[in-house]
TrEMBL record:
Residues 1-64 are annotated as: Domain I. Belongs to the RuvA family. Transmembrane segments: none annotated. This is Holliday junction branch migration complex subunit RuvA. It comes from the Bacteria. Residues 153-204 are annotated as: Domain III. Residues 1-62 form the DNA helicase Holliday junction RuvA type domain. It comes from Pseudovibrio ascidiaceicola. It is found in: Cytoplasm. NCBIfam families: ruvA.
Length: 204
């Protein structure tokens, strides 16, 4: 199995790069974001490789870092998510951003990827929410607030504060982070009004 390729960029296709490794050209399919970051034809490139072997084909998928390859594998464990959808998601988000979106239950961010509808995004968030925090770059407290709100188990003040900040135009991740910080300052028993006020201060 091929784990990494170092070679010279021979040419580009719509969703792949031909990488010349000592005279052998490998066709490597990559997320669009990765293709855009690769060097020009004739220059050296390094890709982390996922090798997919089936009865009728062998296909290589390339990524700029190992964490992207890992998320490619993780995403494909979800029913209805194949290589094309996984590449589409990683084409618009870095690995840490995918983990953050899933950990925070941000289905809207995931549906921005081509070919990902609400139902598939829902499955991705539901099935991977326990795995995502280990890869996420957001605080555990923020994830806890976001997931408790999404699962309707948050206290009323916390849920109301997140809802209020979201209605003011803040992204779900921003609202959850602000309320998590407010709870740290004001305590678990703080009113929604106090959490909103402190949350706005945090966002400012």
């Amino acid at each position: 199995m091929i784990g990494k390729l170092k070679g010279i960029v021979d040419s580009y296709g719509d969703d792949f790069v031909l990488l010349d490794v000592q005279g052998v050209c490998y066709q490597v399919h990559c997320p669009s974001r990765v293709l855009q970051q690769l060097p020009r034809v004739g220059e050296a490139a390094v890709l982390a490789i996922e090798t997919m072997v089936r009865e009728d084909m062998i296909k290589l998928f390339g990524f700029s870092e190992d964490s992207e390859r890992e998320w490619f594998r993780i995403l494909m464990t979800v029913q209805g998510v194949g290589a094309k959808v996984a590449l589409g998601i990683l084409g618009i988000m870095r690995a840490s951003e995918v983990a953050n979106a899933i950990a925070l239950g941000d289905k809207t961010a995931i549906t921005r990827a081509p070919g990902v509808g609400k139902r598939v995004a829902e499955r991705i968030v539901t099935e991977l929410k326990d795995k995502a925090p280990a890869f996420a770059s957001v605080e555990d407290d923020t994830i806890a607030v976001s997931q408790s709100v999404a699962e309707n188990v948050a206290s009323r003040p916390v849920a109301d504060a997140v809802s209020a900040l979201s209605n003011l135009g803040y992204q779900p991740a921003q609202a959850s982070a602000a309320v998590a910080a407010a709870v740290k300052t004001a305590g678990e028993d703080a009113s929604a009004e106090k959490l909103i006020r402190l949350g706005l201060k945090e966002l400012a």
